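call fold(seq) -> tokens
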Amino acid sequence: MLSGPDNTTSMELYLQDVEVSIPGSSRVLFRVSEMSVKSGEPLCVHGPSGQGKTTFLHLLAGLLRPDKGSVRLGGEDFSSLSERERDTKRKRHFGVVFQQHNLLGYLTATENVLLGMPTGVPDRNDRVREALTRMGMEPKDKTHCKWLSQGERQRVAVARVLAAQPQVILADEPTSSLDQLNAAAVLDALLEAAEKATLVVVSHDVRIRERFLRKMDFQGFGAP
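ret:
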């Protein structure tokens, strides 16, 4: 079992009066009047493709700012910080499973996971090996990621987050390329990590919704 995050301080995400518009347009993509997510309370945000779920996740990660309202991280107004400050916070506290995986094809699975590890961690190699094993990727740990299948890359991307043990985990369609068995393994690992980390998963995969007690319909966020 992977141990919990190095920094055990809870990192609550809190959104208030948030509004995000389509870039270059006055049309509102989504609104969130109020929402809170804490460690131990994993949230699945579900809804059909093309509705803005990925944009919502990018908002939580500080990759973009709301047009109105605020996103708070651990009580601090995260969305009001400069891009550089948000980048620093994200690297320190967040683990993000991107839909496109964001792996470097010329590096091995192990090297890609190591890239996501905090500096100065004494057991970093053990954590990387354990995360890859948990994802069933140890047999291909020395394989360059450009030779892996989509599903294998997805599992490496999840392993990268698990090994880093962040305080906040954001996952965008983490099971989209996986069969039933591997999807269950990914969800087991993410929900286990959520016992000590704040977890938000966005997906249209019914298999994910069934595993979460707390669910939110993205279409109910109030976009016109």
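The two ends are 44 Å apart (CA to CA).
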